[in-house]
Design goal:
Number of helices of chain A: 11
Number of strands of chain A: 0
Distance between the termini of chain A: 82 Å
Largest interface: A-B, 43 and 53 residues
Oligomer: heterodimer
Helix content of chain B: over 70%
Largest sheet of chain A: none
Number of strands of chain B: 0
Number of helices of chain B: 10
Strand content of chain A: under 5%
Shape of chain B: elongated
Helix content of chain A: over 70%
Chain lengths: 255, 192
């Protein structure tokens, strides 16, 4: 009586999950039975068929893109679950935490946009070429800072939608709160720079950041699921990424 | 040996918060993780998100890495779970394919209208057929099969990665192989 099942033959194929005695039994049975050999050959053909599926290879930009998205998340407070050393260096680092840096950067960009607008208004006609250069430089700065801000926003959205850890969500909530003010300032700076589309987009993000900064119940899983559903049903994450990529490209091409 | 020493140094530095050291680890392992994740999810964009989540989780828990398993093995386990989580998220949205229940096996439906012989002629079609059958496996079946067949992992490692018993891992692989055979054997018959 043949007691060797197809499942046994699968394990035999991988030489895994069967003891040496069982392997030897199957080996002997395969030598003795043409019917069993045929069954085993069919299994091997099916498994070889799976190899027709080629090893997927990521595109050339994969590593760059991965790191660009990952790095701001690693710098977020929610990523840090370590004891910090109470040294002056630690204190400086803590003071230069992403929330403060986000707000400071946004303030600087807004100040730059305001100053350039002010100076441009005072310039006479012969100064127009210089004014144009200053506008381009200001736009490049704005592009770079807003792109970095959107990377941070993307990381907040991803953490909020992918994590069920109350502790992690709590850290993420603080990070989102720090981005709200920065987001508002960048929207003003974009509007002042004449980029109404970017300003509108940033205003569209603001309620989401506010909702993440002020969850209905603290440490809640449900709001995280609500956000997942929201992100899944809208293309906000895609828009954040696309806008960020567009700004980076625009920054490189501005002359 | 040099590589292993470098890796140990990067791990030590990254666990202290050195993101530059962590970047070395990302670059050393990202493509292997992508390969596993795309095979499990069947979707490059989902796989990319899974790889990102895997590295983020690995960074947060680097201090938990005790060196008993190889770093690559530890990372692969995290990546497999990140890929499964991405699939669960997608399924929540699409609710398209029921999971792992033989009673709801869509293969049966697929073979109510088997493709004609002309479709089997091109190897690209066969490959697409395999991909589509892999897509019909449940997330766990697919992950277990990919880890065993494509990554060459032992049942013990697969069980650890998927938080299943060895017996449940075997059953997941058996179901995956049955679905694969159900997809490929009709093609085999037509070709011969």
């Amino acid at each position: 009586m043949n007691t060797i099942s197809d499942d046994d033959l699968v394990l035999y194929h991988y030489r895994d999950g069967l003891g040496p005695d069982r392997l030897a039994d199957i080996e002997r049975a395969l030598g003795a039975s043409a019917g069993l050999r045929e069954r085993y050959a069919r299994i091997e053909r099916a498994l070889a068929g799976a190899d027709a599926w080629p090893a997927p290879v990521p595109d050339a930009e994969f590593d760059t893109r991965l790191w660009r998205r990952l790095e701001p998340r690693l710098r977020a407070p929610s990523a840090v679950q370590r004891e910090t050393r109470a040294s002056w260096l630690g204190a400086v680092r803590a003071w230069l935490s992403p929330p403060r840096m986000a707000f400071a950067a946004a303030t600087c960009v807004l100040a730059l946009a305001v100053s350039i607008g002010f100076l441009a208004g005072r310039r006479s006609a012969p100064d127009l070429a210089g004014s144009r250069q200053a506008d381009v430089a200001a736009a490049r700065v704005l592009d770079a800072y807003v792109a970095a801000h959107l990377r941070a926003t993307e990381s907040v959205l991803l953490t909020a939608s992918n994590s069920d850890s109350a502790k992690l969500l709590d850290g993420n909530r603080e990070f989102a709160a720090s981005l709200v003010e920065a987001n508002r300032l960048y929207a003003i700076a974009a509007a002042r720079a004449g980029n109404a589309q970017l300003a509108d987009f940033l205003r569209q993000i603001e309620p989401v950041l506010i909702a993440l900064a002020n969850p209905v119940t603290s440490g809640a899983i449900q709001p995280a699921e609500g956000l997942r559903d929201y992100l899944d049903s809208t293309d906000l994450l895609f828009q954040v990424r696309a806008t960020q990529a567009r700004l980076e490209r625009a920054g490189m091409h501005r002359t | 040996m040099r590589m292993a020493n470098d890796e140990a140094r990067w791990i030590a530095r990254a666990s202290e918060g050195d993101t530059a050291a962590f970047r070395h680890l990302v670059e050393a392992h990202s493509r292997a993780l992508f390969r596993i994740c795309v095979r499990i999810t069947g979707d490059a964009a989902l796989a990319e998100d899974a790889v990102q989540e895997a590295f983020f989780n690995a960074y947060r828990h680097l201090r938990d890495f005790d060196g008993r398993a190889a770093f690559a093995t530890w990372l692969h386990r995290i990546a497999v779970n990140a890929a499964l989580e991405q699939m669960r998220k997608r399924q929540r949205v699409e609710s398209a394919l029921p999971e792992g229940d033989e009673n709801h096996d869509l293969l049966a439906h697929a073979f109510e209208h088997p493709p004609g012989p002309d479709r089997h002629a091109a190897s690209a079609e066969v490959r697409r057929g395999i991909e589509s059958q892999l897509a019909r496996m449940s997330a766990i079946e697919r992950a277990a099969f990919v880890l065993r067949h494509h990554e060459g992992q032992s049942l013990e490692d697969i069980s650890a990665a998927l938080s299943l018993s060895v017996s449940a891992s075997k059953q997941a692989i058996f179901r995956a192989v049955r679905k694969l055979r159900a997809a490929l054997e009709p093609m085999d018959t037509l070709e011969s």
